């Protein structure tokens, strides 16, 4: 990530987010040298919009701790986990089995590995060792997403930040949409944002030439999926007659039929 001039930090108001630096302000959030560090303004925008002071923010794949630094900057409480902790305030934990009681968190942010191109650690539990072309990656991510759902309080938000991938000789892997499909089994979609990437490689001549000549595209944006955990529903009082009429109809958790604009973000 190129660390260019830092403009002031404003709330993003469209579904195309852009900020030309890894960190904001004079301080540091996470470590710009950590391969795959999340741009801190992304987390700043989410926490400003969806949480209040003292809210408990969780990052189950915390990396260099960007989420912890942003959360504390904003007066939120934060807990970070990773199979490869890079600092003392991150707990060595597998995101597929979080050591947290049900419904404790006010917000969950996660920026998971998406393929084997970065070697985060030698820990065999690292999901970055699983090829995103294979089902095993999505099965592991579903376990982690299930845990995020379990620890999040009802009526709260979570966000997942991820890129698709193009591998020369193998083709395009729509990782974002596959993970979005899994997220929708657990949560209600609130929005989908495209976050402009400022990775150094995007500006390098040899990468650009290879993309041009090879008829493929360099990844210019990351997906940011913003999701909502519905409050627990009271068991419906259903008569025998309506049970019979509804037999065979799909009653899954996917809320595609919700009224557009019917959702009002609420800070916790
Ligand atoms: C893209 S990085 C996260 C970057 C982080 N948001 C930051 O700003 O530094 C993905 C992280 O997921 C961690 N990870 C991979 N598999 C994991 C697992 N099973 N449980 C917890 N963390 C895992 C990796 O060690 C790596 O630090």
Q: Can you give me a brief rundown of this structure?
A:
With 268 residues, the chain is an alpha/beta fold. It is built from six helices and ten strands; from the N terminus they run E-H-E-H-E-E-E-H-E-E-E-H-E-H-E-H. The structure holds S-adenosylmethionine (SAM).
Quote the average pLDDT: 88
User: Which class do the helix and strand fractions yield?
Assistant: alpha/beta
CATH class: Alpha Beta
SSE succession = EHEHEEEHEEEHEHEH
CATH superfamily: Vaccinia Virus protein VP39
CATH architecture classification? 3-Layer(aba) Sandwich
Major sheet = 8 strands, mixed
The spatial strand order of the largest sheet comes to 1-9-10-6-5-2-3-4
Q: Could you say which overall geometry the principal axes of the C-alpha atoms support?
A: globular
* Number of strand elements: 10
Into how many domains do the coordinates divide? 1
Q: Any ligands, ions or cofactors bound here, and which?
A: S-adenosylmethionine
Question: What does the model show?
Answer:
- With 268 residues, the protein is of the alpha/beta class.
- It has one domain: 3-Layer(aba) Sandwich (Rossmann fold), CATH 3.40.50.150.
- It is built from six helices and ten strands.
- The strands form two sheets. Strands 1-9-10-6-5-2-3-4 form an eight-stranded mixed β-sheet, sandwiched between helices.
- Strand 2, helix 2 and strand 3 form a beta-alpha-beta unit.
- Helix 1 crosses helix 2 and helix 3 packs parallel to helix 4.
- The radius of gyration is 20 Å and the shape is globular.
- The structure holds S-adenosylmethionine.
- S-adenosylmethionine binds next to strand 3.
């Amino acid at each position: 990530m190129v660390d260019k001039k830092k403009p002031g930090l404003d709330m993003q108001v469209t579904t195309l987010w852009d900020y030309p630096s890894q960190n904001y302000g004079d301080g540091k959030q996470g470590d710009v040298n950590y391969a795959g560090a999340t741009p801190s303004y992304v987390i700043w925008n989410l926490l400003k919009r969806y949480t209040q002071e003292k809210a408990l923010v969780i990052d189950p794949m915390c990396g260099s701790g960007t989420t912890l630094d942003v959360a504390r900057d904003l007066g939120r409480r934060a807990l970070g986990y990773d199979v490869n902790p890079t600092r003392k305030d991150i707990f060595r934990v597998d995101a597929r089995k979080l050591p947290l009681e049900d419904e404790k968190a006010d917000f969950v942010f996660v920026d998971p590995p998406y393929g084997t191109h970065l070697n985060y650690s030698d820990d065999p539990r690292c999901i970055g060792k699983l090829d995103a072309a294979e089902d095993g990656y999505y099965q592991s991510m579903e376990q982690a997403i299930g845990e995020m759902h379990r620890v999040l309080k009802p009526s709260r938000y979570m966000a997942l930040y991820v890129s698709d991938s193009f591998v020369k000789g193998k083709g395009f892997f729509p990782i974002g949409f596959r993970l979005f499909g899994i997220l929708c089994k657990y949560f209600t979609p609130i929005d989908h944002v495209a976050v402009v990437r400022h990775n150094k490689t995007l500006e390098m001549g040899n990468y650009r030439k290879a993309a041009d000549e090879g008829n493929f595209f360099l990844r210019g944006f990351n997906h940011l999926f913003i999701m909502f955990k519905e409050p627990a529903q009271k068991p419906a009082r259903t008569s025998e007659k309506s049970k019979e009429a509804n037999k065979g109809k799909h009653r899954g958790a996917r809320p595609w039929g919700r009224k557009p604009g019917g959702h009002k973000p609420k800070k916790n």
